[in-house]
Amino acid sequence: MNYRKLGKTGLQVSEVGFGGIPLQRVSPAEAMQVVREALRLGINFFDSARGYTDSEEKLGRALQGFPRREVILATKSGEAGKEEMKRDIEISLRNFRTDYLDLYQLHNMRGEERVAQIFAPGGAWEGLQEARKEGKVRFVGITGHLPALLLELLKKESFDTVQFPFNTIEQEALPELLPYARQHDIGTIIMKPLAGGALCHPAAALKYLLRHDLSTVIPGMRSIAEVRENVAASGVALSEPEEKALQKEKDDLGARFCRRCDYCQPCPQGLDIPSLMTLQRYSERYGLHEWALERYRLQPAKASDCIECGECEEKCPYDLPIRDLLRACRDHFEG
Questions:
Q1: What is the pLDDT of residues 46-104, one digit of tens each?
Q2: Burial letters 56-94, b for 16+ CB under 10 A, else e
Q3: Domain parsing of the chain, residue ranges
Q4: What is the rounded CA–CA span in Å between residue 137 and residue 130?
């Protein structure tokens, strides 16, 4: 495993970090095995969030017994108020079973009204700064899916890190955000390196990213096999065949696809929107129609159960036309 500096924090982080979203979908025993394999193979940067249900708790349990100084814990809260932010920090401390967190981030920055509230007197930014003075948080960061907004905020406030999506398909951060962060020694944490699982060549996708000047990439992991495959990308150059395969995937996918970030959940009608979209993609792109159809039929709520309330679209950080996509999914499997 290679290590890189996390900007002005001075922390040396594994260039392949651990994204904590998928831990929500595995048992505590499975999470323990996955996290400990990651540690064994040199991963020292672990990212989670208050919004990831029990991800923090599973990580905290799995990391017990390892020297605290050898593990870098990053998490985040989507709260906008000061007291709510401080409450979430206390919950994160308990979940991780520690008395300090290396990095705490403002989660998923979007929406003018919410952003204004966060930085207003009595807002979450104030609570985060207080927690830092109290020694409960060492460094502070910001995350989001809108590079232009993140860049604007980096220019206004002093952040130690910035976390954003970057992969062979999503490259909006390349022209300005990434160069600005490098210039100002702001640590760069890359989420969605596999485009939410849409890219089918994980090792190649990670190799592509690691040839850029960034701090760490954090693919989500839920199995020992995924950990091993992701770690194997560290320190290995991207081959010409791999680059061609990534380009083909990029051409095939376009921009209108689900990244499986789960921000649209929960659906009032019980639809597992990311899973429905993934099944359609498997059917259309990989010739697995019967396999996907069988699993679609087992879904408790299907695309035809959508009442088009639009709540999911309000929460989607990629502004996807989810209602249109669900209609297409319905027609594909039920038409």
A1: 999 998 889 999 999 999 999 999 999 999 999 999 999 999 999 999 999 999 999 99
A2: bbbbbbbbeeeeeeebbbbbbbbbbbbebbbebbeebbe
A3: 3-240, 273-334
A4: 9
- Distance (Å, whole) CA 231 – CA 206: 9
pLDDT of residue 261: 79
Is 248 within 8 Å of 240 (Cβ atoms)?
A: no
Residue of 195, 167, 193, 223 lying closest to 22 (CA atoms): 223
Confidence class for position 129, pLDDT limits 50, 70, 90: very high
Model pLDDT, residue 286: 58
Q: What is the pTM of this model?
A: 0.83
Q: Which residues pair with 6 in a beta bridge?
A: none
Q: 111: which DSSP letter?
A: -
Reading phi first (left if > 0) and then psi (alpha if -120 to 50, else beta), residue 209 is in alpha
Closest by CA to 108, choosing from 137, 140, 149, is 149
Q: Count the Cβ atoms, other than its own, within 10 Å of residue 324.
A: 12
Say if CB 312 and CB 267 are below 8 A apart.
yes
Record: fold of 3-240: TIM Barrel (3.20.20)
Residue 123 DSSP one-character state:
B
By CB neighbour count within 10 A (0-12 exposed, 13-18 middle, 19+ buried), where does 218 fall?
buried
pLDDT per position as a tens digit, 235-280: 999 999 999 999 988 887 776 778 777 789 899 999 999 889 888 8
Q: How far apart are CA 245 and CA 263, in angstroms?
A: 29
Q: How far apart are CA 144 and CA 110, in angstroms?
A: 7
Tens digit of pLDDT for each residue in 190-246? 998 988 777 888 999 999 999 999 999 999 999 999 999 999 999 999 999 999 999
Region 125-132 average pLDDT: 97
Report how far apart, in Å, the C-alpha atoms of 307 and of each of 263, 273, 322 are: 18, 13, 12
Rg (CA), the chain: 20
Q: Residue 303, Cβ neighbours under 10 Å: how many?
A: 23
